[in-house]
Amino acid sequence: MKTEYEVVYRTHNTYEQNVREAFFSFLIQPCPDASQVVKSVAFSNSLEAEVFSHANSFGFEVMNLHTMKPFTEFEFQMKAVVEKSQPVYPLGSTLPVAEEQQLLGDHLFYLQNHLYLGFAHYTRLQESLRSKLLMRAPDQGVYDYLQALNTFIYELLEFDPEPTHVCTSANEVLKLGRGVCQDYTHLFIAIARLNKIPCRYVSGYLNQGLNLTGSAVMHAWAEAFLPGFGWQGFDPTNNLLADEHYIKAAHGSDYADCSPLKGTLKTNGSQKTSYSVKVTPCPLPETTPQPHSISSQMM
Amino acid sequence: MTPTDMDEAERQNQTSEVFRNYQIPPQFLDEVFRAPGAVHPHYETVLQHFLEFSKDEFKELNEHAKMSFFNQGITFSVYSDKAKGVERIFPFDLFPRIIPAAEWARVEEGLVQRCLALNLFMQDIYSDQHILRDKVVPADLIFSSKNYLKAMLGFKPIGGIYNHISGTDLIKHSDGQYYVLEDNLRCPSGISYVLSNRVAMKRTLFQMFRQFNVRTVNEYPQELLATMQSVAPRGIDMPTCVVLTPGVYNSAYFEHAFLALTMGVALVEGRDLYVEKNFVYMKTINGPKRVDVVYRRLDDDFLDPMAFRADSMLGVPGIMAAYKKGNVNLLNAPGTGFADDKAVYTYVPDIIRYYLQQEPILNNVHTYRCEKDDDFQYVLENMANLVIKPVDESGGYGILIGNKATKEELSEFKALITENRRKYIAQPIMNLSMHATFIEGEDQFEPRHVDLRSFTLLGKDRQFVLKGGLSRVALKKGSLIVNSSQGGGSKDTWVMAEDGPSMSMEQNGSMEQSMTMNGQTMTMGPQGMSIGTQGSLSSQAPGAQ
Question: What distance in Å separates residue B117's CA from the closest CA in chain A?
Fold first, then answer.
């Protein structure tokens, strides 16, 4: 079964003082992959600056614009139509545990996946915190384990946008016991990597018709590599597998590779930014958009 | 020329208040003297000149040389100084360091070999990683380096060069061999001092200098420019090149300005450039001008707030994307820092063998890796004769110098290493060679430790090694630390054009002409015109006869 979605991302920034020069980068458009086809994508901005793109380190298109015309207000919009099909799921573990582990321990496999196996600011866990984590049992298959890990994190953390911010690391999340989808995802990634399972950070959009946590704004989840199968999405914030309701924009080692908006401005004074996301299944009538005033943090 | 008997007698008399108390260091190699009174052949003529100066004459020459630095504007001020705003110069020593032609030829060969191998290494790490697959270098060592950039993976710079400019630090050990202490593949500095040292030398002792056939250094800026042009984006005939500086507060700002000026290209800061549609432009009074090649003297972290540190106001937003589109080239390539890492250093000989199937020409300082059992045993038993370093820290932190450490420190370190063997390496304490150096205050020559920073340029199908380099001197007695921030000075470094008799009547520096009339010498050269009076200082000089 196929579903068509219209995805609209809109950001609106206002500045106290004139902005004399600005450079913005957006990593927000849905990407093509095995279960999604991007039918169309269009951009518009209030500065009428020409948008130009480049592929980032992981091959995802980043849209940029530069202006030297002074402004105090900036609006940017991306509108895409995506056809989403039901992804193929793994039917349990396809390989015996010993074979799975042999592959995960292989040197060449490690080299090919090293970007999804390393530990950096977001994903490095202190030795002292590791005892209370769920680790793979010696006779447990990878898929089985990751599903358990998904539930483990879902139950361990409480969804709360208050205490964390874009720079919060998995260590801090573990201590706080609360956070948003970005934090759930980093913790999932960190623990999966401790088990030598390649795992990457995904940013994207959720079907807004299902009342899933995090659907009002850009969402984050994880993709882990299942030996004998390939990459499979896990959403620890909702304790779900990523299915046809998940529209992927980009992936990377962690949030730093997927930050949806970056900008450098020459201005004095403060700024107000807000953004909204609208994901509408096309055949259905439109639902009312839900603008959220947040500080570029993903829920 | 052999001195006449009369000269000899005169020399014995004057000898040299300035050398009277010179003591040859027992356990180090002295670059000038083989034994008391016995001079290395390539220093004979120069030393003879220096012996002819009285103490007062020498002090005067020294002041003259200092003035040359003030006049060239090569000064810096130290912020922490009590006397704020006082301009200082890096101490310069008039006694040149001399490297015979044959000796240099071997060094040069070794430098090119090392830099080429390191370039192939970086190319491999950012593409197929064969060297990691073959486990010649441990993968974790590379992946854990913060200077390993995923933005460079799968991307090959225009021309295939990463380390366009390498500053390789060499020392001469007591065994008479050159050893590489460090590879600097990011933004090696010091070249401006090499060039100004030569100017100061010529201004002060031109009559002496011109008798020697010394290899020139002043072609460096043109070579650097040609290197930049050789790696310009495809289809650009007359590339616009610029030097990108972090600004006037950077301690090497003088050098950035100097290089831009001598290459005849614009000196820009990040705010002077911008990226539009993945091309880089320079803001000029005549409107935007496209920039093709950037010699950036800015660390990777600060280069592009869109790609690296988001809070950098020094960089150019979007320049990495323009670079990866092939619309601009950057020197050096971003992400070279993993390859000049201390831990990777120990693998450079293996890296040379791996890519070039050659034996390394230049020695590496032998390194014991504590993770290996027999090395670990050796380190524990010989701690007092070793320098022990953690592999992942820089700036001299956490280093133990065995022969300077107390008993407590040694046992403390023993525990540290045993706990984390993977983290430590050890090297023998290297005996940097010593060189006669004029010590102000003592007003005489004394031996001081020296090293040599060399400069190698790699472009598309072109290589250049500067004939000479920056000989840095540790001015503090007994000190091995040559860094300018820690009381180091420098010397002009003479690579001789040919060996054999160390004197030559040939003109050095083809661009110079001089004319002698009524005892006055007028010189025209790249440094302008100067007029000198032939006085007693040069009356013994064969060139003046």
Answer: 22
Domain contains B402: yes
What is the dihedral sign for C-alpha B390, B396, B398, B401?
Answer: positive
> CA-based diameter of chain B, in Å?
77
The closest of B537, B12, B210 to B4, measured between CA atoms, is B12
Neighboring chain A residues of B276 at a CB cutoff of 8 Å? 50, 52, 66
CB-based contact (8 Å) between B129 and chain A? yes
For B301, the 3-state DSSP assignment is helix
Per-residue pLDDT at A299: 42
Examine the fold and report which residue of B306, B327, B348 is the final residue of a domain before the chain moves on.
Answer: B327
Query: A66 and B318: CB-CB below 8 Å?
Result: yes
* A182 backbone dihedrals φ, ψ, rounded to 5°: -60, -40
- Return all residues near B257 (Cβ < 8 A) that are at least 6 apart: B245, B267
- Residue B307 Cα, gap to closest chain A Cα (Å): 9
Class in CATH terms, A2-85+259-281: mainly beta
Does residue B288 lie in a domain region? yes
Give a yes or no: residue B413 inside a domain. Answer: yes
Mutation site, A19, A54, A112, A121, interface B, largest B CB count within 10 A: A54
Domain assignment present for residue B259? The answer is yes
- The pTM assigned to this predicted structure is 0.88
- Locate the domains of chain A by residue range: 2-85+259-281, 97-257
- CB atoms A111 and B139 under 8 Å: yes
Report ipTM for this prediction. Answer: 0.91
Cβ <8 Å between A111 and B129: yes
> Best residue in A26, A109, A262, A264 to probe B by mutation, most B CBs within 10 Å?
A264
What's the number of domains chain B is made of?
2
Along chain B (545 residues), what's the average pLDDT of each consecutive run of 10 residues? 48 65 89 90 92 88 89 70 66 94 97 98 98 96 92 97 97 93 92 94 93 96 98 95 94 92 97 97 97 97 94 94 98 96 89 98 91 90 89 67 88 90 86 90 90 97 97 86 72 89 43 44 44 38 34
Domain that holds residue B421: 366-428
- Averaged in consecutive runs of 10 residues, what is the pLDDT profile of chain A (299 residues)? 93 96 97 96 95 96 96 97 91 85 97 97 93 94 97 97 94 96 98 98 94 90 96 97 96 97 93 93 58 43
